[in-house]
Amino acid sequence: MKLKHYANLGVGDTLLNEEAWGSLRNNKKQQSFYLPESKEDYNLLCNSDSSLILAADKIGEVFEQYKIKSVFSPGCGRAVLEFHLKQLKPHIHFVCADNSKMTVDRLKQVIPQCNPEDFDMLGGYWPTDHDLVLLNRIDAELSDIELQDMFRAIFCSRVKYIMVILCEDVDFKLACTQYLVRVASFFRQTPLTYTGVLRSVKDFDMYQPWFKLLQSDKINENPVLVLVRRDEDEI
User: What phi, psi does 20 have (nearest 5°)?
Assistant: First the structure.
């Protein structure tokens, strides 16, 4: 099942552009998106989310299981999960990346230990010097074709492992909730912002020509897939 997702964010018709994300990152009233400018405020933000602390602990166990020494995390946003992962696993080298220059510049101030850098997931080139790519809730922003192109590019970079954390596992309940959101928006005359396409785990299979599933789980209700690169003769 696939579902177009909308939310009342007040940033225009779509969230899928740098300007809309920049507006959210700078808006203190948007607590789920705001990115503080000071390291002190950023640390308070990160430590206020106990669910991500627990998530980092489970993910860290996977990193140890596969002896991960270096992680590349594109589309990292506020990088709160990466903050906790680095605290738990200080020996692992992290690179957090985003395609928003404003976000990257701010991350360089508040989380330099994760080596923030500019990166376009659809640019074709992927770095080759990491053990694992962490794709944390980036799936909604990309179309099926874009996801296929991304997995092909990661395969070509020869990175062995990918961990995918999906935004949601779409089901009937979520579809009904989105229907009610749209109905309420219509009657209240409140414009909604398009945030992307959500997919069920069954419909998230764009990786299969190049990667195979090692294990799956749920962390904080988010589906988590651990993928491993196929051998050349399997392609």
Answer: -65, -45
Beta strand 211-219 with 222-229 is antiparallel
Question: What dotted CATH number matches 2-234?
Answer: 3.40.50.150
User: What is the pairing mode between strands 93-98 and 70-73?
Assistant: parallel
Give every CB contact of residue 109 below 8 A, 6+ residues apart in sequence. 37, 38, 39
Asked whether 78 and 97 are in contact (CB, 8 A), the reply is no
Spatial distance between the Cα atoms of 47 and 39, rounded to a whole number of angstroms: 12
Could you read off the pLDDT of 17-41 as tens digits, one per residue? 888 888 999 999 998 999 999 999 9
Do residues 64 and 142 touch, judged by C-beta distance below 8 A? no
pLDDT recorded at residue 18: 85
The tokens for 189 are: 């005359």
pLDDT at 234 over 90: no
